[in-house]
Amino acid sequence: MSRSVKKGPWVDPKLLKKISKLKSGDRTVIKTWSRDCVISPEMVGFVFGVHNGKIHIPVSVIEEMVGHCLGEFSATKKFVRHGGKIQREIEQKAVEVKP
Fold first, then answer.
1. Residue 99 has pLDDT above 70, yes or no
2. Dihedral of CA 83/85/88/90: which sign?
3. For 9, 17, 62, 63, which has the most beta carbons within 10 A of its beta carbon?
4. Which pTM value belongs to this model?
5. Are 75 and 52 in contact (CB under 8 A)?
């Protein structure tokens, strides 16, 4: 559920402190577990390692991401393809045809 409009977006103060220590355009990964933190304009150009419950997924922040949460760009579930034996055979034939 989103925050109320009168409260405004929530930005993790620890994350802002880490950003202030780095210079703009620095490509070092800033690890964070704060998936609900809203991306602010100060974060543009940095790379965040957003935790998905198992590992930190690198997320490079661009201008179009401002206003979204960090967790939106780090999926927590891995998609397992549908199908079984038949699907595997179809994919095998497709691979054989390509080369």
1. no
2. negative
3. 9
4. 0.73
5. yes
